Fold this sequence. Notes:
The chain is mainly alpha-helical.
Amino acid sequence: xxxxxxIQPTGNLHLGNYLGAIRNWVRMQDEWSAKGGQCxxxxxxxxxxxxxxxxxxxxxxxREMVAALVSCGIDPDKSILFxxxxxxxxxxxxxxxxxxxxMGWLNxxxxxxxxxxxxxxxxxxxxxxxxVLQAADVLLYQATHVPVGxxxxxxxxxxxxxxxxxxxxxxPEDAPLFTLPDPIIPPEAAxxxxxxxxxxxxxxxxxxxxxxxxxxxxxxxxxxxxKKAKTDPEPLPGTVEGLAGxxxxxNLVGIYAAMAGISPAEVLTQFEGKGFGQFKPALGELxxxxxxxxxxxxxQLREDGEALDAILAKxxxxxxxxAAPTLAKTYQALGLVRx
Length: 339
Ligand code: TYM
């Protein structure tokens, strides 16, 4: 059992990241490390250079993301926490897998289409080959499970396709090299939407900070953002079917359910017939209650840059050891001669 997942250190950790992925990282860490399973969580800093970026901000965001993950409950003594840039095997395996990945597969990736937009000629090559690096990230460690939000499902399917083709093309039938990883997507928070637009996912790249709740937001900011969140004038229905065609209401009910650890149907039983004037303060308070302790820990941890660097350096040492055997076997399977 090996769990591997990553997050780009581009800006703040937001509620979508937390509910869609990080909360599962912590759960899996606590469950599996007790049973001898291994969890590797990394900052995808190599992925972050696929879009225009400021080097100074990337370095600062990398340290801040370590502080954020630890404040959410990732324990560097239980999990291996590191950044890709300190484990060269990620970039090496990506190159080796570039021979197996097909142009047509990458062309179909929705993230590539969304992020490159109409300007494909001007997009970076890294943005196009991004999913091959993501495949290398998980195949390098023979990951069995990859906890992610819904938006990463397609990239994980591609990782499986690459693994399968490589195993078929270069390995004996009874000794495949790569494990096919299974995505773990939380049913109740697979896709948290923007607070300003129920049809767009909550994202770090949205220019409006009002569209997302950041882990770093204080109680006032959280209450304000929830209060200003887009809604419709109808009161809440008594059943989940009643949320059809009401994306903003659906999103807020989903967030409440995920935070409270109950189903959307149970939320509606509590709030049936109530307007957003009553529902929003309750949601805001629930968010503040859960996020405030993490935000407080985060503010403390981010002050000690050296300690954060030490966490990454220690994690990278362990990750390099774990990566070495699969990388060596990949070179060998491809017929590449190495001393
Ligand atoms: P990233 O940095 O965009 O997001 C990190 C994690 O947060 C989840 N997520 C969401 N879940 C629910 N609702 C949302 N609105 C929302 N926004 C983000 C993402 O699904 C993700 O799990 N390419 C990846 C990073 C990566 C990776 C990997 C992940 C690189 N290599 C290998 C898994 C395995 C990314 O940019 O995630």
